[in-house]
Design goal:
The protein is of the alpha/beta class. It is built from two helices and three strands; from the N terminus they run βαβαβ. Strand 1, helix 1 and strand 2 form a beta-alpha-beta unit.
């Protein structure tokens, strides 16, 4: 019996959630490089930005080294097929 292959979509959060591990200090070149590798691996969506969501920079959640806009721009320069995902902090 042949089973249909499921449509698996991978959302990678290395650059977003991973920012916690580096105290929100990812640089645009680092984001560009990781995004480029994820794009070449065929990842469906790449989450970028502050680990607690866009606009979450604060004393409580941590101030990033670069604004979300710069990190998003860096990823978008090299990502042509994957989606760029963000978390919203409201």
């Amino acid at each position: 019996m042949n089973r249909p292959v499921p449509d698996i979509r991978i959302v990678d959060t290395t650059v977003r959630d991973g920012s916690h591990a580096v105290a929100h200090r990812f640089t645009p070149p680092q984001v560009r490089h990781v995004s480029e590798l994820l794009e070449s691996a065929g990842v469906w969506a790449i989450a970028v930005g502050h680990g607690d969501g866009l606009g979450a920079a604060s004393r409580q959640y941590g101030f990033p080294a670069y604004p979300d806009e710069e990190l998003l721009r860096a990823a978008s320069e090299v990502v042509h097929h994957a989606l760029i995902a963000v978390a919203l902090s409201v």
